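Running co-folding for WTA.
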Amino acid sequence: MPEDFTSVLKEKRIFKPSKEFSGNAHIKSLQEYKKIYKKSIENPEKFWAEKADQLHWFKKWKKVLGSNKDFFKWFEGGKINVCYNCLDKNIAEGKENKVAIIWEAEDGQTKTYTYSELLQEVSKFSNVLKAHNLKKGDRVCIYLPMIPELAIAMLACARIGLIHSIVFGGFSSESLKDRINDCNAKLIVTSDGGFRNGKIIPLKENIDRALKGCPSVKKVIVVKRCKNKISMKKNRDCWFHDEMSKPKIDDTCKAIEMDSEDPLFILYTSGTTGKPKGVLHTQAGYLLYVYQTFKWIFDIRDDDIYWCTADIGWITGHSYIIYGPLSNGATSLMYEGGLTYPHPDRFWRIVEKYKVTIFYTAPTAIRALMRYGDKWPKARSLKSLRLLGTVGESINPKAWMWYYNIIGNKRCPIVDTWWQTETGGILITPLPGATPIKPGSATLPFPGIVPEVLRENGSKTNVDEGGYLVIKKPWPGMLRAVWHNPKRYEKTYFGKFKNTYLAGDSARKDKDGYFWIMGRIDDVIKVAGHRLGTAEVESHIVSHKAVAEAAVVPIPDKIKGQAIYAFVTLKKGIKATDNLKKDIIMHVADNMGHIAKPSKLQFADDLPKTRSGKIMRRVLKEIAKGTKEYGNIATLADPSVVKILEKRVIK
Ligand code: WTA
């Protein structure tokens, strides 16, 4: 039966890498890590300059780190191409026949691309994009399932200086519209659908609905994946395969020389207020950061088969399915479909089939699979695995132990990697051959990274005292901007503590300097590892015709970590019924996406507000959780609201 996620299993043991693992690792001991770390902090420019020499540059940079008033610049004066580093460079180094991408479709079909095959497809698609008159700096929105064309489209953009903005296939039409309009995308790459748990996700339909309100989009290129019936709009929509097979489309395309700080991609993510923000990453610094972190954290070797189960629609997929692995010349596996489709052993079958050596997933997936019992992984051969990883939220010790014992057979180190869309790559993590692991802790900073835990007044916290997690020095992979919104960038990330990056998480540091992440301090909810903003979910609830006001808060969930609890006030005269409840939930699914559906919805005549009319979410969180630790509620305009809501809370 389901393991209790909230159970307080304590795990005090420390897990050290085996001698065998350490002996073969890039970084072999804690001492070695400490030495590298010290040097990286004493002279970060020297450290990153040395690392940057591993990349291919058309022209070397003049200055490693510069800064201007509101953001940092890395490797200015340098000319580089990210796609070239991911493909051409590996081919030049003799990897033309090495498999770059293994793709497993939900129905079990397989496709592989060697580095030279991938380069050919990418070059062709770059030429297609050029033929549609796209120029350096134009935005391309990619809305695709986990199919190889997604990798091809993003690398093709990078090759010719187009800025890609990928929208996760789990988002629906209204979320798409907001994201497309915010970056004024000119072209969309999508598909007739995607397979998920045996069903077809109607991606093209979502695009058609979204595009009713997106004047900037001139072209839609559609990949045929499901062979289902869709409508194609004349002069706007065309098929991917038709475009790729036009005689004038050459299969070579020169990678253009990009400035180090030219934009590479925009990825929308949730914040405290309002609409999602377009996190902007640039060329050289991002590439270097994902290159180096991938190399050391996943301890990559030439014969590894690496599998990250994330979707490329999130940052984890950008950095650790595509850019990090490919720039290292690794073999990266992409899986299209559902976690337990058709059976709960799907992941373990894939590990067995391709002899996966490095496996990177989210705690929510581990908890979901653990629930089905040990018999599923035990029936498969997982002996190829040598390293495991987690990302997206803290891992509870019970799930950690299961992952370690049953999946890793007590042999494989687990890297618990802390980072964010904004950080580009992993910042706090074990190095698997070096760092003794404490289950539940992301352990120590990656070289070059200076995290700290601060109090409200900016002073350092004591050992084990919780506070704001910040990063005190710039690093190459950090975001450079919130797209077209410099004020929001400054306020969100540098507004609280001067010259210090505010992560938005709380954390504590233990006596050994290990970091323990305690959760978000803002209105971000992590549902099954997916980062959602309360503001965005609320705006989709309020857009329902019966709703006057809404507030959503996180509640603990055994599998997903967190789930969404919604308090909804209806317009005057509208009756609260179960059908209406269902209708509002479906409205959110249709407009924002299934991932944003509230799992509980409580109708409320009134919400707890301050006298100035601000909803007090902290009170709602307590009501929803049933913990009733309200603290001071004297500032509420009408404290009696709390009791009324408590009585009708949905358990
Ligand atoms: C959370 C995902 C604990 C954290 C890469 C962060 C984690 C947010 C961990 C970013 C971890 C990520 N332990 N919490 N190992 N990794 N988080 O932007 O709250 O989707 O701020 O990036 O996920 O989510 P995002």
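Result summary
Residues 542 and 570 are 9 Å apart (CA to CA).
Residues 1-7 have pLDDT under 50 and may be disordered.
Job closed.
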